[in-house]
Write a structure and sequence with these properties.
single chain; alpha+beta; 2 domains; seven-stranded antiparallel β-sheet; two-stranded antiparallel sheet; 23% helix; 22% strand; globular; TLDc domain-containing protein; TLDc_dom
């Protein structure tokens, strides 16, 4: 454990090439923890903090942040963080609106959405291979979409929840943020940082492998977001 912690240490005032190398190194550690299924809450929080610090330093060089990942070897080999146009960590209200989500994330192809809840700071989200749109309706995804938990109040290790009804994989509506499943399994409302309207009706279209139902991700059915990041898949 101490060895891993030492490996995560880095200098904040270094050149962009070194910052990028640190991003890759940290992401490999996240991928390994997820693959092994033994990531603790503290480990994930420490890694997330380290990512944020490195990304902040790297951003000073005027280039987009990006992370290479083996989170899903067949589908997510390379993930680009769209932090510059859809994330809540800058504290701006616009970053949490459904309008901002669709303005920046529609028609982008495969994406992974990572959400941090305001209460508890739990990390969870979903992956889809199809593009988000503003037009209303369900969209089928036959390329293994899934929901996932990274940290949660139950001590469940990082876990993926595969789709069981592909025709309801995601739901599009201009008034909604990223929404997965019929019901919905995971729904992010407009102004999700200040509204308590986001909810989890799970399982519905996705399989509950850990038998915690709607309390799986945050411990409650309704939640507010503290942070949202949407990552776009880049094909090699």
């Amino acid at each position: 454990m101490m060895k891993k912690k030492r490996q995560l240490q880095f200098e904040v005032d270094i050149k962009k090439e070194m910052q990028l190398n640190k991003l890759l190194e940290l992401n490999q550690k996240v991928s390994k923890l997820i693959s092994d299924g033994n990531a603790s809450f503290k480990q994930i929080e420490n890694l997330k903090r380290d990512f944020q610090e490195v990304q902040k330093q790297y951003k000073k060089f005027g280039k987009a942040n990006f992370i290479r990942s083996n989170f899903e070897p067949n589908q997510l080999k390379t993930i680009v963080s769209n932090k510059e146009y859809f994330t809540g960590d800058d504290g701006t209200r616009d970053s949490f609106t459904s309008g901002a989500f669709h303005r920046h994330c529609d028609h982008r192809g495969p994406t992974m959405t990572i959400i941090q809840s305001k209460s508890g700071g739990y990390l969870f989200g979903g992956y889809t291979s199809v593009s988000w749109r503003s037009s209303q309706g369900y969209v089928e995804d036959s390329y293994e979409p899934f929901l996932f938990t990274l940290t949660n109040p139950h001590g469940i290790p990082p876990t993926k929840y595969p789709v069981i009804e592909e025709r309801y994989a995601i739901f599009n509506k201009k008034e909604c943020g990223p929404t997965f499943g019929c019901g919905h399994d995971l729904y992010v409302c407009d102004d999700s940082k200040i509204s308590t309207g986001s909810y989890i009706y799970f399982p519905w279209s996705y399989s509950d492998r850990t038998n915690r139902g709607s309390e799986t991700f945050t411990g409650t059915k309704y939640f507010q977001t503290n942070d949202i990041e949407v990552y776009r898949l880049i094909e090699n």
